[in-house]
Design a protein that fits this description.
mainly alpha; transmembrane; cell membrane
C-alpha cells in the first residue's frame, strides 16, 4: 500500500471514531443503569409524582373553546344533515337493476369487460347477502365525503404549490392528519358536532383529504416548464393558463389523488359507525363483531372488501395512463354511449318506481338471515380445534411476545419457561452477544456492532425493563447522527413529553408490539416478495391477494383474528401483520425486479450462485426501495394500534380508545399525538437513511 493510500485510510478510520464516542459513553451509562435499576426503580418505572397534568390543561382549554364555537359547528352539522338524508333517500329510491346497469356501464368505460363482470358479481353478492340498503347508506356517506375532501384537498394542494413558503407547514399538518389515529380527533368532533351520521361524514372527509393535497401538489409540480411557457406564449392569462394548461396536464395525477381519497373515505366507514352509527355496512360489521356472530361478520366484512376493490378499480381505471391504450370494450363504450347507458338506467328506475312505488324489489331473506347455522359451525370449529389455536397463541406469546415485552430475564422463570435464568446462563448469553457483535464489526463496521448490542440488550431486559433514560438518549443520538441535530432534538422533546404525561408504559407496549409485527412482516413479506420477483406465477397469485389486503378497511382484519384467537395481544399482532404485510411484499418485488440487468449478468458471469447473486448484488442494489417498503410497513403498523385496541391491548391505541369512551379530549389528543410522533420520527429517520445510502 502506498503512503498516500495509507494516510487516507487512517484518516477515514479517524473520521469514524468521533461518531462512536457518544455511543461508548452511552454504553457505560447503560451498564450503570442496569446495575442500579434495582436500587433506583425510577430508572425503569417513571414515578407518577413526576408526571404533569397536561391532559387536564388541554381539557380546560378545550372546554372553554368548545363552549364558544360549538353553536356554529352545530349549525354546520344541521346544514350537512339535509344532503346526507337526501343522498340516502336518493340511493334508497334507486332500484337495484338500475344501479347495476349504471355501475356496469361505468366499469366498462373505466377498465373493460372484466371489471364490468366483477361489478355485476359484486353487486349481485351484496343483493343476495341481504346488505343492499346498508350498502347504499354507506355509498351515501362516501359520495358526500369524497367531494368535500377532493375540493378541500385540491384547494390546499394549489396553495402549497403556489406558496412554497407554506409547504413545510402544510406538509407537517398533513403528516399529523395521516398519522394521528382517527379516534383521537373524533373526541373533538363529538364535542363540536354532537353524535350522529354527520360526525362520521366529517371524520371521513378529514381523514380522506391528505391524499388529494399531496397528489395535487405532485401533479402541478410535475407540469413541464415547456408546457407552461407554451401557454404563456399563446396569450393565456394566469387563470386561463392554470385551468386550461396546468390542470389538464396534471389531471392523471389528480385522478390518482381522487382514487386514494375515495379509498380513504371508504376505509373510515366502521370508525364512522362507532360515533355516528346508522344502518350502514360499518354498523353491521361492528354490531356482529360485538355479538360474536362471526358468520355475519365475514359476510358484511366481505361486502366492504368487495366494494373497496370495485371502487378502487373504477377510479384508478379513469386515472390510467392513456399511453397504455384502451381495450376493445373500452373503445366501444364511448362517452356518448356511457351517457346513454346512464340515462337508460335512470329511465328504468323511474318506470319501476311508477309501476311499483312501494316495492322493495329485494330478496325476502338474504344470506345474513340464514347464518345462524354458519355461526354455530364456526363456533364448533373454534371449540373443537381450540387446542391448536391455543397452542399457536401460547407458543407465540411465550416465545416471542413475552421476551420482547419483559425480556429473557423476566420470562426465564419456572412459572413461564419452566427454568430459571442462572448467573452462568446470563454470562453465557452476554458472551454470545459480544461474539456476535465482534462478527458484526468485521461485516458491517461499528454501526453493525451497535445494532447487535442493542438487540441483545433489549432481548435480555425487554422493552419494559429497559431504563427510559437510555432509550431516550439512544434514539435521540441515532436521530441526530442519521438526520441531523433538529431531528435529534425533536426525538428528545417528543419522548420527554410522552414521559412526563405518564404514557411511558403505553409507549413501550406500542413499541414492542409494532417492532415485532414489523420484523415478522419484513421476514414473511420479504420472503414472499423475493419469491414473486423470481416467479411470474407467484407474482400473479400474490397480486390480487395484496390488492384485497390493501383495500380492506382496517376493522375487517380483526374478524378472523378475533374468531380464532379471541382477545389479547396475539390477536392484535395478527391484525397488525395482515394490514402491514403488503408493503414489504410489493416493495421487495419491485426493487428486485428493477435491479439493472447488466449488473446481475456480470455477477453471474463471475460464478456467483443464485443465492450469492441475491444477497450480494440484488438486495444491496434494491436497498433504497426496500427501505421505502420498511417505511410504509411501520406507518401501517402504527396506524393499526388504535384499531387493535378493540381486542385488548394496553398501548397508546388503547389510551386513545379509552379517552374516546370518556370524551377525554386532553388524553385522547396527547395519546394520538404520541402515535403521530412515532410515525413522523420513523418516517424522517428512514428517509434520511435512504438519502445517505443513495448518495454514498
Amino acid at each position: 500500500m502506498t503512503a498516500p493510500a495509507a494516510i487516507a485510510r487512517s484518516s477515514q478510520r479517524f473520521a469514524v471514531a468521533p461518531a462512536l464516542v457518544p455511543w461508548c459513553g452511552l454504553a457505560v451509562l447503560t451498564v450503570l443503569c442496569l446495575l442500579l435499576k434495582t436500587d433506583l426503580p425510577w430508572l425503569v418505572n417513571f414515578p407518577k409524582e413526576w408526571t404533569l397534568p397536561l391532559a387536564s390543561y388541554v381539557d380546560a382549554v378545550t372546554d372553554a373553546v368548545v363552549a364558544v364555537i360549538q353553536p356554529g359547528f352545530r349549525t354546520l352539522s344541521a346544514l350537512l344533515d339535509a344532503p346526507m338524508r337526501g343522498a340516502r333517500l336518493a340511493l334508497a329510491w334507486l332500484p337495484w337493476p338500475a344501479v347495476m346497469l349504471a355501475v356496469a356501464a361505468l366499469a366498462l368505460k373505466s377498465s373493460g369487460e372484466r371489471l364490468a363482470i366483477f361489478a355485476l358479481l359484486t353487486l349481485g353478492y351484496i343483493l343476495l347477502a341481504g346488505y343492499w340498503p346498508q350498502s347504499m347508506n354507506t355509498l351515501a356517506l362516501v359520495l358526500l365525503a369524497v367531494p368535500i375532501s377532493t375540493v378541500l384537498g385540491f384547494v390546499l394542494g394549489v396553495l402549497g404549490h403556489a406558496r412554497p413558503r407554506l409547504r413545510p407547514v402544510l406538509l407537517g399538518a398533513l403528516d399529523l392528519m395521516q398519522t394521528v389515529p382517527a379516534f383521537a380527533y373524533l373526541i373533538l368532533l363529538l364535542l363540536l358536532f354532537g353524535f350522529g351520521p354527520v360526525v362520521g361524514l366529517i371524520a371521513s372527509a378529514i381523514y380522506a383529504t391528505p391524499p388529494m393535497v399531496r397528489n395535487t401538489m405532485l401533479g402541478l409540480d410535475r407540469v413541464p416548464a415547456a408546457i407552461s411557457e407554451a401557454g404563456l406564449m399563446s396569450g393565456c392569462t394566469r387563470r386561463q393558463q392554470f385551468w386550461q394548461v396546468e390542470v389538464p396536464t396534471a389531471l392523471p395525477q389528480l385522478l390518482v389523488g381522487f382514487n386514494q381519497t375515495t379509498m380513504a373515505a371508504l376505509s373510515m366507514v366502521i370508525v364512522a359507525a362507532i360515533i355516528g352509527g346508522f344502518e350502514d355496512i360499518g354498523w353491521e360489521v361492528l354490531s356482529s363483531m360485538r355479538k360474536a356472530e362471526f358468520g355475519q361478520s365475514i359476510l358484511s366484512g366481505l361486502v366492504i372488501a368487495l366494494l373497496a376493490i370495485l371502487i378502487d378499480r373504477l377510479t384508478i381505471g379513469f386515472a390510467r395512463d392513456p399511453a397504455t391504450g384502451p381495450t376493445p370494450a373500452m373503445r366501444w363504450m364511448t362517452s356518448r354511449r356511457l351517457m346513454l347507458a346512464l340515462g337508460l338506467a335512470l329511465a328504468i328506475a323511474i318506470v319501476i318506481r311508477l309501476l311499483a312505488p312501494d316495492a322493495a324489489l329485494l330478496p325476502e331473506t338474504g344470506l345474513r338471515t340464514e347464518m345462524g347455522a354458519v355461526n354455530q359451525w364456526l363456533l364448533g370449529i373454534v371449540r373443537d380445534y381450540a387446542w391448536f389455536f391455543d397452542g399457536v397463541r401460547n407458543a407465540v406469546l411465550y416465545c416471542l411476545l413475552l421476551p420482547m415485552r419483559i425480556g429473557i430475564s423476566g420470562a426465564a422463570t419456572p412459572a413461564i419457561w419452566g427454568v430459571a435464568l442462572s448467573p452462568t446462563m446470563a454470562a453465557v448469553y452476554f458472551v454470545l452477544v459480544l461474539a456476535l457483535a465482534g462478527l458484526a464489526i468485521r461485516r458491517f463496521g461499528g454501526q453493525g456492532a451497535l445494532v447487535m448490542l442493542a438487540a441483545g440488550l433489549i432481548l435480555y431486559t425487554g422493552f419494559l425493563g429497559l431504563p427510559w433514560p437510555i432509550f431516550i438518549l439512544a434514539i435521540s443520538l441515532l436521530a441526530g447522527q442519521v438526520a441531523g441535530r433538529r431531528l435529534g432534538l425533536f426525538a428528545l422533546a417528543g419522548f420527554a413529553l410522552i414521559l412526563v404525561n405518564g404514557l411511558w408504559p403505553q409507549l413501550v407496549q406500542s413499541l414492542y408490539l409494532c417492532t415485532l409485527a414489523v420484523l415478522l412482516c419484513l421476514l414473511v413479506g420479504g420472503a414472499l416478495g423475493t419469491w414473486a420477483a423470481h416467479s411470474d406465477r407467484v407474482s400473479h397469485i400474490l397480486k390480487p391477494i395484496c390488492d384485497a389486503l390493501q383495500t380492506m378497511p382496517q376493522f375487517v382484519f380483526l374478524i378472523p383474528a378475533l374468531m380464532f384467537f379471541k382477545v389479547g395481544e396475539f390477536t392484535a399482532l395478527i391484525a397488525i401483520m395482515l394490514y402491514a404485510i403488503v408493503p414489504p411484499i410489493r416493495y421487495v418485488e419491485h426493487g428486485l425486479r428493477h435491479v439493472r440487468a447488466d449488473v446481475v449478468e456480470a455477477v453471474e458471469q463471475m460464478g456467483a450462485t443464485p443465492l450469492q447473486t441475491l444477497l450480494q448484488a440484488k438486495l444491496p442494489l434494491a436497498l433504497p426501495v426496500v427501505m421505502l417498503g420498511l417505511n410504509q410497513t411501520i406507518m401501517a403498523a402504527l396506524s393499526m394500534l388504535a384499531i387493535a385496541a378493540l381486542v385488548g391491548t394496553r398501548d397508546l391505541g388503547q389510551a386513545v380508545y379509552v379517552a374516546l369512551g370518556k370524551a377525554d379530549a386532553g388524553m385522547g389528543l396527547i395519546a394520538g399525538l404520541s402515535i403521530a410522533f412515532l410515525a413522523i420520527l420513523a418516517d424522517r429517520l428512514i428517509q434520511a437513511a435512504v438519502a445517505r445510502s443513495t448518495s454514498a
